[in-house]
Design goal:
The structure holds two protein chains of two kinds. Chain A has helices at residues 2-18, 23-41, 49-74, 82-97, 104-127, 133-151, 165-168, 176-194, 196-206, 208-213, 218-244, 251-254, 257-267, 279-298, 303-322; strands spanning 170-171, 174-175. Chain A is mainly α. In chain A, a hairpin with a 2-residue loop joins strand 1 (170-171) and strand 2 (174-175). In chain A, helix 9 (196-206) crosses helix 11. Chain B has one domain: Orthogonal Bundle (ABC transporter involved in vitamin B12 uptake, BtuC). Chain B contains 14 helices and two strands; from the N terminus they run αααααααββααααααα. Chain B has helices at 2-24, 29-43, 50-75, 83-98, 105-128, 134-153, 163-170, 184-202, 204-214, 216-221, 226-252, 262-272, 284-303, 308-333, and strands at 172-174, 181-183. The relative contact order of chain B is 0.18.
């Protein structure tokens, strides 16, 4: 009797010492529920490796950009322009590469440069012109959308077959896309918790006035955060176009990467008000979406019903920990 | 004589400074609206005639009503992303409920208004009691309404809206004084605008909404029921979205994209009208002016022959510019 309580306590302590974000338990619960539902109502394939890998591959595109979104949101900012940055990257990549492997390095460099400029402009509008980040990035998103739709109306060009290894290739048994997601996640974790910039970002997000008074260059921190976020959107764009082979102006907004990356980040425990959160939670938030999609597909659920349940899960997941908070929500 | 020469310039000065102070207090959205409106009128003289202006107001009415609803939520410190999908829901839902039977138009409208109250209540409870950030709560609601509407209709618009329903969106009142035909949507906008003005600027509720948006903790300590105020703001926004949806359905007919993007347009209009996104500020006439400006801008870009995509780009630039101007002006005043 006593031994069981001791081991239970020990287990509890170990789990606490790992500091796993609570959202992982939520994800696990959804997954277990999915497996049970799948066993009863469908073919019971949830635990096969191909489906498990598929969950992760589906999560890569959203996951990369959600990590960038996490960075800006920790800084109490937000980026609604990512969906159009993804479209811009995808279209420009396939248009400029024209199936020629020799053009890949130049094109990739160019789209990352454009991404950095988008992030810089977002950051400058927010910090120097003092425009609310929601409105600023909504505006820049509209500008990119307009420019893109005025120039391209359909799929343009194609990426070379070699470039598609990014989306479909494997190293040993591990898909390259998964390696990229893990790489971005580790880089994001490192930047946020092991660098001076990361520490400053939490400070600026927690209380910009205090951060400024204690000598931080708050504007610069926010600008760098936005550049990082736009660069992750570019990487997502490259990944998406490598899977689709050709980019079209609507693939970003069709994937709802703007609102879904925000939702995944908040579901993962990063506060919209800034100063709290991290990459680990966001990955769980993204995986929850991936697991849900897979469950819905396994059960052959109606597309529209999927949307209803998705909305409900977002609300419930966020409610599960905001309800205990003493802070007022806005 | 000498006395007169010394006093008259100073008096003139005070009149001038007073006039200047008065001019400076005009919200910048009104000069912007006038300039854009005149530019449209220059390109299309028909625009400046009474019927032309009324036709413009009729087109702008749903957006203006959505923007007023958004103002209540923004002033209380939140955002409501669910209004666009609520408009779509009203349009396709009403068509299904009415299904070409004019007798069902009124019950359908009442049912929709009831749904509006319910949606606002859920949004409000999610934010006030579950403390979910409004951006996320109303995003979840957006997804649910979109899915529910399409699930209900099977993915394609079905049913028909009868003429007595569409009257609210495209009807006219004949033999109206001064003008022969007065569009019904403009009348609805006037009614909603006046009601909103009274609620927002002349009642305790309006002051409470502003106080909650400015500082929820101070409001609670001074005895305001913060949660109730928040919930009411969301209910007002949803009910106004239902009214706008009825007008959109009447004007444009039944499509499953009727409300697409309207939530962001409404937020843009409210922000153009000077409602601060973090709450605590705003005014109904300014927000209506913001909505009219946005609609006039769409007209202008159309008349200039810009392809539709470029209109998005210009809209984006104008929104950023207007908000940047307001922010910089506010800083200068401090």
């Amino acid at each position: 009797m006593t031994t069981t309580t001791v081991t239970a306590n020990g287990l509890k302590k170990t789990i606490q010492s790992l500091r796993i974000p609570p959202v992982y338990f939520f994800m696990l619960a959804i997954f277990v529920l999915g497996v049970i539902l799948d066993q009863i109502f469908a073919r019971g394939q949830m635990l096969t490796p191909s489906i498990l890998v598929n969950i992760i591959i589906r999560s890569v595109a959203l996951g990369i950009v959600a990590i960038g979104q996490t960075v800006v949101m920790i800084g109490a900012s937000i980026d609604l322009s990512v969906a159009y940055t993804i479209s811009l990257t995808a279209v420009l990549s396939s248009f400029l590469m024209q199936g020629d492997p020799a053009r890949v390095p130049m094109t990739v460099a160019l789209v990352f440069l454009i991404g950095a400029v988008v992030g810089l402009v977002n950051g400058l509008i927010i910090t120097k012109l003092k425009v609310n980040p929601f409105i600023a990035t909504l505006g820049t998103g509209l500008v990119i959308k307009g420019a893109l739709n005025a120039t391209f109306s359909n799929f343009a060009g194609e990426v070379p077959a070699s470039f598609q290894t990014l989306g479909y290739g494997t190293i040993g048994p591990v898909p390259i896309s998964v390696i990229i997601l893990v790489g971005v996640a580790v880089a994001g974790w490192f930047i946020l918790s092991r660098t001076k910039f990361g520490a400053h970002l939490y400070g600026v997000g927690g209380n910009q006035e205090v951060a400024r008074l204690s000598g931080l260059r708050t504007d610069r921190v926010i600008i760098v955060a936005h550049i990082i976020c736009s660069l992750t959107a570019v990487l997502t764009g490259l990944f998406v176009v490598s899977r689709l082979r050709s980019g079209a102006p609507w693939i970003g907004p069709d994937g709802v990467y703007d609102l879904e990356s925000i939702a995944a980040t908040v579901v993962g425990g990063t506060a919209l008000s800034g100063g709290r959160g991290g990459v680990a939670g966001t990955i769980a938030g993204v995986l929850i979406f991936g697991v849900l999609d897979t469950i819905f597909n396994q059960l052959g659920m109606d597309t529209f019903l999927k949307s209803v349940l998705r909305g409900a899960v977002i609300i419930l997941a966020v409610a599960s920990y905001t309800i205990r908070s003493k802070r007022e929500a806005a | 004589m000498a006395q007169a020469t010394t006093t008259s310039p100073t008096r003139e000065e005070t009149v001038l400074t007073r006039l200047w102070g008065w001019i400076r207090r005009i919200p910048p959205i009104f000069p912007v609206l006038i300039v854009i409106f005149l530019a449209v009128g220059y390109l299309n003289p028909n625009f400046l005639t009474t019927p032309g202006a009324l036709a413009f107001l009729r087109r702008a009415a749903p957006l203006a009503i959505l923007a007023i609803g958004q103002l209540f939520v923004i002033a209380s410190g939140g955002l409501d992303l669910s209004v666009g999908s609520l408009v779509t829901f009203v349009v396709i839902g009403s068509a299904l409920l009415i299904d070409n039977d004019p007798n069902k138009a009124m019950p359908a409208i009442l049912i929709m208004l009831g749904i509006g109250v319910l949606v606002g209540l859920i949004n409000g409870i999610a934010v006030a009691y579950f403390k979910i950030p409004s951006l996320i709560a109303t995003l979840g609601m957006l997804l649910m309404l979109k899915g529910a509407g399409l699930y209900w209709t099977g993915g394609a618009p079905r049913g028909y809206l009868t003429d007595n329903f569409r009257f609210f969106g495209r009807g006219f009142i004949e033999n109206f004084p001064l003008v022969e035909r007065f569009p019904v949507p403009v009348l609805i906008l006037l009614a909603v605008g006046i009601a909103a003005y009274v609620i927002f600027h002349m009642t305790n509720l309006g002051r409470s909404i502003l106080a909650v948006g400015d500082n929820p903790t101070a409001s609670r300590l001074s005895g305001i029921h913060v949660r109730k105020v928040r919930i009411i703001a969301f209910i007002l926004s949803s009910v106004f979205a239902i009214i706008a949806g009825i007008m959109v359905g009447g004007f444009g007919g039944v499509t499953i994209i009727a409300g697409d993007g309207l939530e962001l347009q409404a937020i843009s209009a409210a922000v153009l009208g000077g409602a601060v996104l973090l709450g605590g500020r705003g005014s109904v006439p300014n927000v209506i002016a913001g909505a009219l400006t946005l609609e006039a801008l769409f007209n202008l870009l159309n008349l200039l022959g810009l392809p539709k995509p470029l209109r998005d780009a210009v809209q984006g630039l104008i929104i950023i510019g207007a908000v940047a101007y307001t922010a910089l002006a506010a800083r200068r005043r401090k």
